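Extended Data, record Large ribosomal subunit protein bL32
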Amino acid sequence: MAVPKRKHSNSRTNKRRSHDHLSRKQLTYCPQCSSATPTHTVCPKCGYYMGRTIVEVNED
């Protein structure tokens, strides 16, 4: 079994992990009701997506 001969330094470990961070979700504005929604999802307020109403949302 392969075993490392020396400990990796903190600097080397952190350089390797520099690309592991999370990115923010990209938001767009619904053309129908102008609320911010994540990309490629149906608008939760009006049910609008890709130029048509997908989900009927009842107004309570």
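Summary. The radius of gyration is 23 Å.
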